[in-house]
Amino acid sequence: MRRTRGATTPYTVKAARELRHSATHAEDVLWDALRGRKLSGLKFRRQHPFERFVLDLFCVERRLAIEIDGGGRQGSHQAEYDQTRSRFLLENGIRVIRFTNQQIENHLSEVLKQILFAANSPSPDEEFRQEKGRG
Question: What is the pTM of this model?
Fold first, then answer.
């Protein structure tokens, strides 16, 4: 079983704790919809540290990270950083789905449907094991 935090540093854990107290409106809205196993019994963690990153929301049992991109995250540098981060997480068996603040605030039911679909889709580890078993 993979560790749920990887090689997390005390700095990352501290940053995660601080981020829990400075959530955006969209993060609060989505967290309220997910907390307490409200979505199909899935347990999510908020501002979960993993290696050198802090994941906005994370479902350990499905190894699914949800990232919320706010208004201040535009530009090619940020897009490149997000892509690198997502690739690193995927290499560590964690799928990432992203939503904007506007998607969450204006289309929450659709966002929840997409989260549920992603959570019920095979993880990269499961897909690899299935392919290996066929060959």
Answer: 0.78
Dihedral sign for Cα 84, 85, 86, 89, please: positive
Tens digit of each residue's pLDDT (9 = 90 or more) over 22-44: 788 999 999 999 999 999 999 99
Q: Decide if 108 contacts 22 (C-beta within 8 A).
A: no
Are the CB atoms for 119 and 59 separated by under 8 Å?
yes
Q: Cα(5)–Cα(51) distance, rounded to whole angstroms?
A: 6
Domain span including residue 120: 10-134
Higher pLDDT, 114 or 128: 114
The CATH number given to whatever domain includes residue 43 is: 3.40.960.10
Please provide the DSSP assignment of 70-133 as one string.
-TT--SHHHHHHHHHHHHHHHHTT-EEEEEEHHHHHH-HHHHHHHHHHHHHSPPHHHHHHHHHH
